[in-house]
Each structure stands twice: as C-alpha cells, then as structure tokens.
TrEMBL record:
<dbReference type="GO" id="GO:0000166">
    <property type="term" value="F:nucleotide binding"/>
</dbReference>
<protein>
    <recommendedName>
        <fullName>NAD binding dehydrogenase</fullName>
    </recommendedName>
</protein>
<dbReference type="InterPro" id="IPR036291">
    <property type="entry name" value="NAD(P)-bd_dom_sf"/>
</dbReference>
<dbReference type="Pfam" id="PF08635">
    <property type="entry name" value="ox_reductase_C"/>
</dbReference>
<dbReference type="InterPro" id="IPR052515">
    <property type="entry name" value="Gfo/Idh/MocA_Oxidoreductase"/>
</dbReference>
<dbReference type="InterPro" id="IPR013944">
    <property type="entry name" value="OxRdtase_put_C"/>
</dbReference>
<dbReference type="Pfam" id="PF01408">
    <property type="entry name" value="GFO_IDH_MocA"/>
</dbReference>
<dbReference type="InterPro" id="IPR000683">
    <property type="entry name" value="Gfo/Idh/MocA-like_OxRdtase_N"/>
</dbReference>
<feature type="domain" description="Oxidoreductase putative C-terminal">
    <location>
        <begin position="164"/>
        <end position="305"/>
    </location>
</feature>
<feature type="domain" description="Gfo/Idh/MocA-like oxidoreductase N-terminal">
    <location>
        <begin position="11"/>
        <end position="161"/>
    </location>
</feature>
Amino acid sequence: MTASPNQNYAVLFIGAGNITFGNDNVRWNHSLRVERCLGAQLNVVGIVDPSVERVKQVVEQKKRSSASTCYSHTRHYKSLDEAATGLEERGCTPKLIIIGAPPYFRGTKLPGRNLEEQVIAAFGKGPSIFCEKPVSTALAHESLPVVKLLNESGNRVSIGYMLRYLQVVQKAMSIIRENELTIMSITARYTCAYSRIRKVDWWDKSKQCGPIVEQATHFCDLARYLGGDIDLDTVQAYSLEHYEPPGKLSHMAIDESKIPEDERIPRATSAMWKFQNGALGSLTHLVALHDIKYSNDIVVTADGYQLRLTDLYSIPTLHVRTPESEEEKEFQFPGDDPFYSEFAALLQSERGEDITETSGGILSTYEDAYKTYEFTWKIREASEESARFLRQKK
C-alpha cells in the first residue's frame, strides 16, 4: 500500500506484551505488521499497559528502528481510562485499536474483565478493533453478551485467527468450493515445542485455560473454517495428565511445583466429534517437542480427494491428491505472512482498498471466534471429565 507522509492513521495498542511487540522466540509481532501495512501513515498515539518498564523498552526499541517516526508521538497510559482522557485532551481519536491484553481482561461484561465494553464506551463505534484470540478465559457462556455488544456497536472487528489467512488454507478452500466437495473427515494434529515457554501462566489452567483453549484453538478454528459448524453434543476427549508416567517432561523452563496440581496443564489431549453435516473430526494436541519449531498438520478428506496442510507455522504446504492422480501435488507460497494479511484485510474492509489480493476481507468475526471458543471449552471439559473418571477408577 502506498503511504503518504501527510496522512495520519492513529493506532492505539492495548497491551505491550509479546503478541503486540514480540520477543526473542516468537514469530508474532503485530506492531511490525501494522508498520508494514500503514507505512508513514502510521501514528501510534498510545500504548496502554500497567508496566512502565516494558513500555519504555518497547518505545526505545521502536525509536531506534526504521519506523521511528511512527512512534514520535506515542504516550504511555497505565489504564484505558487514562488513555481515553489523555487522547481526548490531545484531540486524538484512534482509527484502529489493537487489543493484545491478556484474555483474562476481556470477553465478558464482568467488572475488570470487560475490555471490549470499556473500549466502546470510551471511543464509540468509530475505531476498527483487532482483538487477539482466544476471546476470553471465562466460561464460554460468559462471553455471549460480548457477541451481542459487538454485533450492535457498529465497530469493524477482526479476531486474530491468522491461519485462516494462509494462502495454502485459501487454496484448500478454493479446491473444496470449486469441486463442490462434501467433506467426510478432518483430522488435526498439533505438537508444540515447550522448552522455551517461560510464561508461568501458560502452564496454569486457572490463568490461561490450558493448551486446548489457548493454543490448539487455532486448529479447532481451522477445522470449523474448513468443515463447518460442530455438533457440540458429540464432542468426546481424553487427556494425558502431568501425574501419569508418560506425562513427565524433562525440559520445562518454569518450576511447575509452584502451580497447584489441579491447575497443571495436560501433556496431550485427543478429541473427536461430528460436524453438523455428519462428517467426522478429530484433534490431537501434544506438549512434547523441544526448542522452538512446532509440528502440525491437518488432513481434509472427501470422495476422491485428500488435502493435507502441513507445517503451518514454518513452511506452510498444501499436498493435494485428486481422482486424476494418486501422486500428490504440492502448493507453497514463499513469503506468505498471515499476520500481515489479517491486518491488511481489516484495513481493506474499512477503506474498500485492494490492499491484498489474498485476504478476501475479514475472515474471523467476533461471533465466529466465539463459536471456536465454545468448541475448545467443550473439548477441555470433556477431557477433564474423562480424566477424573479414570483417576477415580484407579
């Protein structure tokens, strides 16, 4: 997108953590994508975060970067109320608000956990809103009022299910649509590398809800995106727990003894279900690998067709077998960046500009993301129920 230095596109970040500004072991860094999308138009008017030290570090790094001019007017606000007052005094209204605060603080209308409600009360329907996944850490039904709130507010809202924007995923969707395929089965596998996960809350179900709700949510969402809505009454799941011999991990970066036993995350979860159209679905999530690189794949099967999506976090590849040949055809799209595409799609929706050829507009609304959230909670609850039963049985 061509940027003009005379234009001013005000952006407010809520949360200065890794998802918004990155660290040494993650690919995600929303600020870099917004800088790329908006160029010299970008004016980061504020960062809302309680940590003075973290925001100071972020701003100092940005002022040494090629995007330094985009942060020349950035102010630090310790709370949203402080930001609303400060921006009003400056005569500044954000055009885009990026909510990267921990999910505990959003996704409900409960006091202190109602960030979306506070944002709309402070800034109205004008700003577009980008919100990270999962939508909350509350029980699924507690997020339903926020679905209604955002449906009625008039704000453009996009949720960070970036895998939908991968070109290999879009290619798979085009094959399904063009050939009018009726999906028979979707099988997903997600194995994370855990040895550098230093965030204690990630290992604590009471803080971030566990790996199905927090991490495997991406593949649960892809299963829904590719296969349609789930019959939630059919969800079944089993888990490998920390107290079972195969659940002992050798390279944890945190001291798990400080986490209550009942809140320690499962090491593996296997779930199965039926889609509303009758197709079968399954997911296996594991906390098993070392270092950084994850291993993952999702296989979509229909009459005569097999679509395999592999390595979606490193070298996304689509392998396609069709009735015409037993040999798989591979599709790769070097340089594809779904994090960029999800922001480009939001801006495209707002401006009506052809920012990216692949985005096709916003692919994950809040209401749709809520359905994924509800689905992941079903899996977690089913796995915990079976774990309790099996432990009592012993």
